[in-house]
Amino acid sequence: MSPQTIVLHGHELSYVDAGEGPVVLFIHGILGSQYNWKHLVDRMDDTERVIVPDLFGHGASAKPMGDYSLSSHAATLRDLLDRLEIDTVTLVGHSLGGGIAMQFFYLFPERVERLVLVASGGLGREVSPLLRSATLPGAEQVLGVIASRWVLTRVEAVGRAAAKVGWKPGADIGAIWRGFTSLGDRESRKAFLATTRAVVDPGGQTVSAHDHLADVVPLPIPIMLVWGSKDRMIPAWHAISAQKSVPEARVELFEGAGHFPHLEDPDRFADLLGDFIATTPGHVSEA
Q1: Is 231 designated active site?
Q2: 11 has which bridge partners?
Q3: Given the residues 14, 95, 120, 245, the one annotated as active site
């Protein structure tokens, strides 16, 4: 992973560009970063060109005040592809990134060859109370306290003590903790809250892609949904609901995995993704 930086809309965007061949664009979720896809770069860059950005408001990219909607993220990714002179991609989106991937497909269908949605947002109202709480009044002040160095240091100490007696954190805990520790500065917290509030309210997810998916079903676009059976962030039955909108979609369930199936069993995920790319035609849809 050797990140590069490009200036888009006056702000720096960090991204990885590795390998040669058909392009695969990976989109992380809320509190995620390039790190969430790190294990796939070496697995894929011999046969594909892999683009892995940090979305604005995340990771090493800028955290400006402004629009953090799905459409804004999708437009930024379109602009990144334009600057890299890339015409079409296979989109792989996790959680929020799945919602961004679907919005990208809706806005720019001619640029998408395949769509892979991993524990994706935008397919149902249900979502974890943790994210719903971020939309409540006073969330910024509360987040500032619990993401402070004082609190994080003590939680880390508890984790180290638990590890000494045999406790091993799962993929979900590791990924969420890594994201949570990125909220130490006020700009990161504001970007997190703006991103969350763009797609979630106190009752759940506010954006649904079902109508958009139904509208584009006639287009020749292969779609695969990957979910963990024990996802406590976004329930796995959303994959079945999505398949009703797109009957041709392939669904892969990771038994026992949580919200990060691609981290819980990275080898299986890499094999599935490679097989999906190799065995689907990848015809570019027509606008």
Answers
A1: yes
A2: 8
A3: 95
